[in-house]
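Q: I'm writing a short explainer about Enolase-phosphatase E1 for a general audience and would like to include a description of its predicted shape. Could you first generate the structure from this sequence?
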Amino acid sequence: MPTLHGVSTVLLDIEGTICPISFVKEVLYPYALTHAPQILTAQWDHPALLPYLTKFPPSVRSSPSTLVDYITILSASDVKDPALKALQGYLWRTGYETGAVRTPLFDDVVPKLQIWKAASKRLIIFSSGSVEAQKLFFGYVEGAGDLNPLFAANYDTVNAGPKMVKESYMRIAGELGVKSAEVLFLSDNVNEIRAALEAGMQALVVDRPGNAPLTEADRQELSIINSLDEVEFGN
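A: Of course. Here's the predicted structure. Afterward I'll give you a sentence or two in plain language.
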């Protein structure tokens, strides 16, 4: 892997990049669906839940059971719906706060993030999960505790835009006040990587165990790493 130059900011995806996809699909998603009936029924009229409910169409939030049926369909289709993502964060909070859920990160992640932070790199998260869910995710990391202080900002598809269009990455760079070329984006998704490259960012595909296989064309076109330890910064 060649040395990367001029990078002031590292923009990170989560699922399949710094955390196993299996945790999200086999732990977090099922937890939300399993506990949704109980939590929604108990808190249906609670003011804290109302902002999450109003993000959904009125026709699917007439009752807890109606909403559960709707989010079950969305989850099964892996739809990146902002309302669903926000509600998932609300539901996951119970799991994290009770200790039922803890976030596993790949072994290379925490040491490398700490090194980059100490080297004055700005660390930013961009995920399809809501900002609230991101902060929960990083607030309860196995063996590391709360990692949120490492990150200067969090972006999702609401405050940045879709992850597969270049405008979202241009918006992030603009809000951060940096040139796109100063940003290194790391993701397992080749279409996100291409969008970031089109926006003028530097970008690397992170190929982790359990991720979708990369095509030969992807391997020819894009720069690929298997660990954050492979990233080297120059001046």
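A: For your explainer, you could say: The mean pLDDT is 95.
Q: Perfect, that's easy to follow.
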